[in-house]
């Protein structure tokens, strides 16, 4: 995934995860985007290897590799 491919939702998620781990629900609350938007973009970021789920039970995510740094 290239920097130009990132959406506003992606950037908001990445900004929040730079501060540490977060659940899907927290990311929805903190970013102000709809649950569907956040969930869909998280799937894209995980598939691209930029974000990883560190605990399936709580759906806790962390930043693995910020594509904006490349």
Automatic annotation (TrEMBL):
Gene3D superfamilies: Winged helix-like DNA-binding domain superfamily/Winged helix DNA-binding domain. SUPFAM superfamilies: Winged helix' DNA-binding domain. This is ArsR family transcriptional regulator. It comes from Natrinema altunense.
């Amino acid at each position: 995934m290239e920097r130009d491919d990132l959406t506003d939702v992606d950037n908001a998620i990445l900004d929040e995860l730079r501060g540490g781990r977060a659940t899907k629900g927290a990311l929805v609350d903190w970013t102000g985007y709809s649950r569907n938007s956040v969930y869909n973009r998280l799937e894209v970021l995980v598939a691209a290897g930029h974000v990883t789920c560190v605990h399936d039970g709580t759906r806790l995510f962390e930043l693995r590799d910020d594509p904006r740094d490349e």
